[in-house]
Design the sequence.
């Protein structure tokens, strides 16, 4: 709310503040990890951390060279200013490796310029001398992939690609604190600045710059000092003490390699406590007493509670799942096993206790299975996920077992969350994977029961696992299924790709705020819907138009159908994605998206379109509405060939909402092309994130761009049949 107690949709300041708090905590933890390293490791980490922060290629220079490499022919005149900037870039370099890379960049640009001019007077580069220089300056030690790529390159263009794609950018604006020739001091200054950002009134660019580097710093320390992630005098130690999982003997072994005074004090304090009471801290001889675990009676009561909650939720969710299945051409399987029995829940609860305080982990109580044809599996899966998103379900987890190395289950398992926080699972199968699921059901139950025992039989567990692996091995993988990535998101932790090689998520702490903000925006739209919908219905009746809203294309029946619920509301997931774009691109870029949390469509016949639009404008103005923006995509097609007249209106309280004017043909085309638009939007966002990395993956960039072009072409093909109304 602003000072006039009016709602404002922009959430930029809220999200920026959330990211600052996250940075302060993250860089405090990074500082603690860094100072706990042995001196030689500390020096090695500091040296690598220079690159991507104080050392690296200037960002605009790198972007210009990327654009240059995309051209088939090189203009020698365009290279002159680029070479001058590359020379200034080389003057900035301080570290020996940074200097040799910067000098090589200048040399390769000069060689490319000579080639473009047809200049034969410039002597060819000596490959052996170049390899010796790279080796002597230590490039293979810090950047082995860069050294390998340079060694394999055959000309200036290929060497430039290696220097651009295998070497990081430096930060811009360049942060303070760089001490030339002293990596250790520079690292300490950089970490201090990261903490300070969390309390200063810094710009969005400065905050984002430090946020992008946290994953790289964690990855460097994980690589050079993998045992350093656990520092035995931080908040994690307090949690382990409280949970009864702290072992002082193991902690002392780690503390012995920690050069800080805090480590010595922690070791001494633990020894002193053990001298007074050997059971107060965990050890081999005296394991620490853990909090009491819930009883079997507790499990029975909790299972009854969960079962009753699921029984109330099941009818509404099942209908939504059936609608999604119909829209993507999927067949529902195992309808009689959707609601889990109390016995099943009780059995899982027995083996699903959390380590802290003995609380239960809540199992999923509703399970759905959808079967897709192998050839259309990936496309059907994506259409289904878009369908769930449009109905207000948030994606929590995706686990693609088709991609697993030694799977014990085959399929794609998705966990979704309804608005009230209730979670359920949807499994996507082929006919073969569903058959194997049924054949191995009893084996999974036996494995679950064995693991729930107080002392599981390790041999028995391994035998059951091998049985499951052998059953899954011959199941064919659907074409393209490797593109479905594993994913996990927690409303209080933020999203992360579930891959061991993935760096820590950037600014994940803000996702809880983003989810809350998205639900708040939808609640605001829902309240406004009751006031604005009668006005829109009256205007539609007066001009002879159909009042439409969110619609779904039923591919199996080849028809477009209005959604049964939330006809005029943007889904929570879509609003959440818009807020993420706001955080990444700046407030101005996402406000237009947020103006359509409440949206309407007026469908007019082509021959009456222009007159109907003008009469609708007049009706809405008479009702106290103000036209804020109008975009005529009949005159000039929008993204993916989109056709329609998009307008934004503001009511008397300042609330803004969207009204689209369509012909019957353009409205149907919009519904048919919606899946292509959403996939294109998602791929574009991923492409921008990839390009924002210090060292983007060239192959991934090409794959994403190709996918975007494919979806755009498909969307344009749908809209190609739409003709603009007369005089539009």
Sequence:
């Amino acid at each position: 709310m602003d000072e006039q107690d009016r709602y404002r949709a922009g959430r930029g300041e809220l999200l920026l503040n959330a990211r600052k708090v996250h940075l302060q905590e993250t860089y405090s933890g990074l500082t603690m990890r860094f100072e706990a390293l042995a001196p030689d490791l500390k020096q090695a980490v500091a040296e690598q951390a220079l690159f991507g922060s104080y050392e690296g290629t200037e960002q605009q220079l790198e972007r210009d060279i990327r654009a240059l490499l995309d051209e088939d022919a090189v203009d020698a005149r365009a290279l002159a200013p680029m070479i001058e900037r590359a020379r200034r870039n080389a003057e900035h370099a301080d570290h020996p490796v940074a200097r040799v890379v910067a000098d090589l960049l200048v040399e390769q640009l000069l060689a490319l310029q000579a080639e473009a001019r047809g200049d034969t007077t410039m002597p060819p580069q000596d490959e052996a001398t170049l390899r010796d220089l790279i080796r002597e300056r230590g490039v293979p030690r810090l950047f082995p992939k860069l050294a390998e790529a340079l060694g394999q390159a055959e000309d200036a263009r290929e060497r430039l690609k290696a220097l651009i794609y295998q070497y990081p950018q430096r930060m811009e604006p360049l942060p303070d604190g760089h001490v030339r020739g002293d990596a250790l001091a520079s690292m300490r200054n950089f970490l201090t600045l990261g903490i300070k950002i969390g309390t200063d009134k810094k710009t969005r660019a400065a905050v984002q710059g430090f946020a992008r580097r946290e994953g790289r710093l964690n990855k460097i320390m994980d690589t050079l000092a993998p045992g350093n992630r656990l520092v035995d005098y931080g908040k994690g130690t307090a949690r382990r003490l409280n949970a009864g999982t702290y072992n002082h003997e193991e902690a002392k072994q780690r503390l012995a390699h920690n050069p800080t005074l805090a480590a010595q004090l922690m070791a001494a304090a633990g020894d002193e406590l053990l001298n007074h009471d050997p059971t107060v801290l965990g050890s081999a001889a005296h394991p620490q007493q853990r909090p009491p675990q819930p009883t079997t009676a507790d499990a029975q009561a909790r299972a009854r509670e969960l079962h009753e909650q699921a029984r109330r939720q099941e009818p509404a969710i099942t209908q939504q799942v059936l609608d999604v299945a119909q829209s993507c051409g999927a067949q529902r399987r195992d309808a009689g096993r959707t609601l889990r029995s109390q016995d099943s829940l009780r059995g899982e609860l027995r083996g699903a206790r959390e380590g802290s305080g003995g609380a239960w982990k809540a199992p999923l109580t509703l399970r759905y299975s959808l079967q897709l044809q192998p050839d259309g599996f990936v496309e059907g899966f994506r259409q289904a996920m878009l369908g769930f998103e449009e109905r207000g379900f948030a994606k929590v987890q995706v686990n693609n077992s088709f991609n697993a190395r030694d799977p014990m289950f085959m399929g794609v398992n998705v966990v979704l969350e309804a608005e009230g926080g209730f979670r359920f699972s949807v499994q996507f199968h082929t006919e073969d994977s569903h058959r194997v699921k049924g054949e191995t059901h009893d084996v999974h139950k036996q494995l679950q029961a064995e693991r729930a025992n107080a002392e599981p039989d390790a041999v028995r567990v391994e035998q059951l696992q091998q049985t499951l692996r052998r059953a899954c091995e011959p199941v064919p993988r659907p074409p393209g299924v490797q593109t479905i990535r594993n994913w996990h998101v927690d409303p209080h932790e933020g999203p992360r790709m579930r891959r061991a090689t993935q760096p820590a998520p950037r600014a994940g702490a803000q996702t809880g705020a983003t989810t809350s903000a998205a639900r708040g925006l939808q609640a605001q739209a829902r309240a406004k819907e009751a006031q604005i919908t009668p006005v829109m219905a009256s205007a539609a009746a007066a001009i002879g138009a159909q009042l439409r809203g969110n619609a779904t294309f039923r591919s199996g029946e080849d028809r477009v159908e209005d959604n049964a619920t939330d006809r005029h509301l943007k889904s929570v997931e879509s609003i959440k994605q818009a807020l993420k774009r706001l955080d990444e691109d700046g407030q101005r870029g996402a406000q237009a998206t947020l103006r359509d949390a409440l949206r309407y469509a007026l469908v007019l016949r082509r021959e009456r379109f222009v007159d109907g639009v003008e009469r609708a404008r007049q009706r809405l103005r008479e009702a106290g509405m103000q036209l804020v923006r109008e975009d005529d995509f009949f005159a000039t097609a929008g993204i993916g060939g989109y056709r329609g007249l998009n307008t934004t209106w503001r009511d008397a309280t300042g609330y803004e909402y969207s009204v689209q004017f369509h012909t019957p043909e353009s409205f149907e085309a919009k519904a048919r092309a919606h899946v292509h638009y959403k996939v294109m939007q998602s791929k574009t966002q991923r492409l921008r994130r990839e390009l924002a990395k210090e060292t983007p993956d060239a192959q991934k960039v090409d794959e994403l761009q190709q996918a975007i072009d494919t979806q755009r072409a498909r969307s344009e093909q749908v809209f190609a049949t739409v003709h603009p109304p007369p005089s539009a």
Observations:
- The chain has a mean pLDDT of 81.
- The first strand starts at residue 331 and ends at 333.
- Residues 242 and 356 are 8 Å apart (CA to CA).
